[in-house]
Amino acid sequence: MLTLIRDGVLHTPAPAGVQSVLLVGELIAHVGPVDEARLTSLEVPCEVVDASGCLVVPGLVDPHEHLIGAGGEKGFSTRMHEVTLEQLLLAGVTTVVGCLGTDSVTRHLGALVGKARQLTEGGVSAFLYTGGFHLPPRTLTGSVTEDLVLIDCVLGVGELAIADARSTQNSVAELARVVAEAMVGGTLSGKAGVTHFHTGPGRARMSQLHQLLDEYEVRPECLYATHANRTEALMDDAIALAHRGAYIDLDTVDGGLGRWIRYYLEHGGLPERLTVSSDAHTAGAEPAQLHRELVACVREHGLTLETVLPFFTANPAAALKLRRKGRLAPGQDADLVLLDARTLDIRHVFTRGRRRVGDGKLLVAPEGRGA
Q1: Whether the predicted pLDDT of 17 surpasses 90
Q2: Rounded average pLDDT over 199-210
Q3: Are residues 119 and 134 in the same domain?
Q4: Is residue 159 located within the same domain as residue 301?
Q5: Among all residues, which ones are annotated catalytic?
Q6: For residue 242, what are the contacts with CB-CB under 8 A and spacing of at least 6?
Q7: What is the C-alpha separation between 310 and 224, in angstroms, rounded?
Q8: What is the maximal distance between C-alpha atoms in the chain?
């Protein structure tokens, strides 16, 4: 199957002007001028998509979602429901990473793996972190390292809670052991091997992560801390950690993301170390907020698309070593979103070379079968 997306304004995520993009199978084959007449003369199926009036951007990469629902922290009646394929596609999310949170008692890693594989069969590239909030981490094989090496969709361990009353109040030495297991698993499997840290509202902030770098043989790029946009003091701590080589994630749960991105950048935060996630499905969080906050950053907070788009695409792909995600270039997975150039509304979504959303409407059945 060939797909030609022509006459759109390309963001790779860097702005690249009006360009055509040729998709062959599940990959991007060519970016630049295409002889359309010659292409359509080939005796193979070819779909031509007119992207005039649209921005062509990479599919969004959401590095933190509770795909099987977060646990009910105010009792069983507050348990969250699962994220659906429809929610992801309509939000422009083409790659997602699932995690367990506080509840690793009634929420199980086996179910999370099954959910990730269901979403992947439906067209979204879905991965996960082994473990959860607490230590020792829940795993499928009995070892963080073995989970990374033996289970294809496991990229790291997390979200491991620090500076939070809901954590298991771990010492830095205990954290170092888990970080080391993930690093070794990543080395052996060619994966990121990150430890994804939930940073709570506690007074310790990210001090334990700084201690890890000070006192242990830890590669800083294997530390990936989320929920940094709770307070300015926590953001300052996160900026310092980013300068040491770690990755920092901001969530979109409470809105106002543009203000926090501006704070991060104006206080010397390294742009290449910043990512954004939805934290869906925790209370009040859904995948659609990722796209809404991207739009708000540009339309309400005055940030340029060129500035913010990498935080939603190329940067999380880099943090997680998803080498064929987050960018538009030959050889990359054909995950693209076409945005209305005026409103930034989602017009079309392609995943792995197939159009899944057209004119803002889902083109696949909710369970992932072709419509």
Answers
A1: yes
A2: 97
A3: yes
A4: yes
A5: 279
A6: 248, 269, 270, 273, 274
A7: 16
A8: 66
